[in-house]
Amino acid sequence: MPRMGRSRHGDLRDRGIAVSLTAADVVHLAELARIELTEAELEKLPGQIEGILAAVAVVSSVGDDVLATSHALSLSNVFRADEPRPSLAPEAALAMAPASQDGRFRVPRILEED
What we know:
The chain has helices at residues 6-14, 23-33, 39-60, 90-95; strands at residues 100-101, 104-105. It has 114 residues and is mainly alpha-helical. It has a domain at 6-60. A two-stranded antiparallel ribbon has the order 1-2. β1 (100-101) and β2 (104-105) form a beta hairpin. α2 crosses α3 (39-60). The longest helix has 22 residues, at 39-60.
């Protein structure tokens, strides 16, 4: 059974050459992944996998000169300055709580802990 891997298809894919898969290739991949396939799936999958490999080849063809981004726009420190400002006093916040103890909100236990 033909083996997929660097020796057979990897070098071709690296050069942008389309790879054609046979049903035997798909059977081998399915065995490696421990997936059982029906005959109908074996008929459709080679073409679908070739489409996926073609899409990967297009994405892989983008050169190294494209910088990786985490956002579509160039952003730098979008946070406001960390400056102290007036806020609610702890006593006022605790005054609105249904229950408090030792300067903290008292809430019902939700986890059984030792």
